[in-house]
Specification:
Elements lengths: L1 H4 L4 E5 L5 H9 L4 E5 L5 H15 L4 E4 L14 H23 L7 E5 L12 H21 L5 E7 L7 H4 L1 H10 L8 H12 L10 E4 L10
Parallel strand pairs: 1-2, 3-4, 4-5, 5-6
Helix pairs in contact: 3-4, 4-5
The structure holds NADP nicotinamide-adenine-dinucleotide phosphate.
The site of NADP nicotinamide-adenine-dinucleotide phosphate (NAP) has 19 residues, from α4.
């Protein structure tokens, strides 16, 4: 929605979820959008999604690798399959989509991965998740090096805790701790992340690449002592 408001034609992707309401909202507001479905753990699906997006729009200017899963599971007893699923969905999906996108992005094009503050600050039960997000940050920096000479920028946005319906009921203790600890005193909203992604994709960020933009209300600025 934030990209559409900034004037972009948007391909809204999910694996299975119905995103037709988002497409309808954008269209009703006078924008242009379509929906696409693909399991991004499959590299061929990444390529197909990128190709379909470029064909639909006539060109592809910006990709946001936002797909990810966040299961909570302790290391003791975690199976290799459970580890791999998180790495495949959070990290390998971004590798596949970025590689495919770089073949069609023009100079000035950009890729933004949605990482997490957990890429730098571990949380119990999230070893697989934190490791995948740390790797995502480093993948973006590496890709910025390799694609920079072609004018393609690659960055990450690292959100803190983002609000969703039911979060305060599901995790009252966590939400309470967060809002008391965060300098700005509130949870993030999806729009906070969307705006950061729009900024990084825009000409206003044309000299920013290989960077990690932390969007967390200041929580990681807190001293740890
Ligand atoms: N929520 C937070 O507080 C928070 C904080 C920091 C970072 N993040 C990151 O922000 C991103 C979005 O999080 P969210 O909370 O909005 O999660 P969400 O509501 O669960 O949405 C995740 C999206 O990823 C898609 N997805 C997952 N696995 C996929 C796969 N293998 N192939 C294709 N699509 C796949 C899902 O599609 P389906 O619904 O069709 O399965 C869904 O559209 C994630 O990368 C997450 O790690 C979230």
């Amino acid at each position: 929605m934030r990209f559409a408001r900034a004037g972009a034609a948007v391909v809204a992707h999910a694996r299975h979820s119905d995103v037709s309401a988002l497409v309808a909202d954008i269209t009703a507001a006078g924008g242009r959008a379509t929906e696409a479905h693909a399991d991004l753990a499959d590299e061929h699906a990444c390529r197909r999604l990128v190709r379909e997006a470029a064909e639909w729009g006539g060109r592809l200017d910006a990709v946001v690798n936002n797909a990810g899963v966040q299961p909570v599971r302790g290391l003791a007893g975690m199976t290799v399959a459970q580890w791999r699923e998180v790495v495949d969905f959070n990290l390998t999906s971004a590798f596949g989509c970025t590689q495919a996108a770089a073949e069609v992005l023009p100079p000035g094009g950009s890729v933004t991965h949605v990482a997490s503050i957990e890429g730098r600050h571990p949380a119990a039960g999230h070893a697989h998740y934190s490791a995948s997000k740390a790797a995502l940050i480093m993948h973006a920096r590496s890709a910025a090096l390799e694609y920079g000479p072609r004018g393609i920028r690659v960055n990450t946005v690292s959100p803190g805790l983002i609000d969703r319906p039911g979060l305060a009921e599901d995790w009252p203790d966590g939400v309470d701790r967060w809002t008391r600890a965060a300098p700005l005193g509130r949870l993030g909203q999806p729009e906070d992340v969307g705006d950061a992604c729009v900024f990084l994709a825009s000409p206003m960020a044309s000299w920013i690449t290989g960077n990690d933009l932390v969007v967390d209300g200041g929580i990681t600025a807190r001293p740890t002592w």
